[in-house]
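Following up on my earlier message about nicotinamide-adenine-dinucleotide. Here are the inputs again, as you asked, copied directly from the submission form:
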Amino acid sequence: MSTFYESVQSNFDRAAAMTKIPKGLLHQIRECNSVLQLRFPVKIGNQYKVIEAYRVQHSQHRQPTKGGIRYSSRVTQDEVMALASLMTYKCALVDVPFGGAKGGIKITPWKYTPEQLQAITRRYTAELIKKNFIGPGLDVPAPDYGTGAREMAWILDTYMSFKGGDIDAVACVTGKPVSQNGIRGRTEATGRGVYYAMREAVSIKEDMRKIGLEPGLAGKTMVIQGLGNVGSYTGMISQDEGDVKIIAISEYEGSIYNPNGINIEKLLKHRKATGSILNFNGAKNLPSREAALELECDILVPAALENQIHIDNVHNIKAKIIAEAANGPVSAEADEVLRKKGVMIIPDMYINAGGVTVSYFEWLKNLSHMRFGRMEKRFDHNTYSNLVGLIEKQTGKSIGNKEKDFLTRGADEIDLVRSGLEETMVTAYHEINEVRKRKRNCEDLRTAAFVVALEKIASDYYNLGIFP
Ligand code: NAD
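Thanks, got it. Here's what our run produced:
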């Protein structure tokens, strides 16, 4: 089986062959520019433990570089290099002006107390500072598997204690709590982006006809693997805004099935209370955690880890659409089988780009030192109120208070973030789909997404005058 990095490279090569980008430049784009391997001691109880960690900057063609930090016992250099590479292509694809990076600490987070996790995070950050691998204009981490706003706040605080005089220091990391210079809408951003992407993909009649589905999300059946940040928001938003029916969930402890639909919000409460998704009201426990992946459904959303659909289980996959919310959930070998079968794969580098898109908004907010909407919200409200007043006067009819509130509202930060995210995901989908239709031999969205990304990165290099 290919490693994760080899899978990314093989997807790159397939797309690269469809471009006119010179060989030498393709080689430069493909390789990871800087790989930092770290080993540092942290006192755990009465003993010192040596922690293995990484930060990889795949491409500095744009700076800063950007990418999450993962805490998992499965972290390897290969994995971090694969994830950093994907970040470069992802950013280019959705016009986020960063190079790609990724970090990883090889630990099982739930085996440590919050104090110990804090010590590990702070020491990792200090190592990055020493090596010049973090900074608002250098390299900006964010959350990923096993990390969230809490870890980002620790990173910020450590960075501030070294670089407090830097007026832009708070832009050294994104995904921070809103109260610590974060942005509204970042926590849900990846899941919300997955929702917008799926909505766009299923809205195209001719593409749906090819896979035997009616256009539109409403009523489509969905299976989700991984009920963490990305999986849970994808589920909740798809249910609330898209009327999707979620029939099965797979988590670490097992999987559950209910053909009538599973309410994700209630399931999250159940998991919080019992520590497990199993034995949820109205749902049936399935024999294994993998069993859910093999169910008949319209959309399968792997939102846990890489290589979950591989050569040994790919022949049992019955979904018509695979929405790759996780990074690299389908191995290169499985991808080939699914492509031949005509399964629609909405690729990771596009579909989970909502996180980095809103991280970009957070970074801009931090550099401008002001909340989005602060200047214009009240002005817009007053303008719309005057307009509504004029309409009432001219028509002689009064507009109800509820409608008035709706019509005269000025945009808040959360409205602007969601609007920017939706615009990004919709525009990028059509850009990719256009290339898929236009290029000969390019029948899948992943190859098309790589072609779009590679051409944008190559054009940056041409503009820099580095490659003719
Ligand atoms: P998370 O840690 O919040 O959640 C992951 C969930 O998957 C956990 O609940 C875990 O128990 C579950 N899980 C792990 N192995 C599993 C298995 N074999 N079967 C079923 N469930 C399993 O992580 P996350 O932030 O939601 O990230 C998930 C994926 O999305 C990762 O691939 C990550 O790189 C990608 N991603 C995350 C973001 C983000 O903003 N957090 C952005 C882009 C991509």
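One observation from looking it over: The radius of gyration is 23 Å. Hope that helps, and feel free to reply on this thread.
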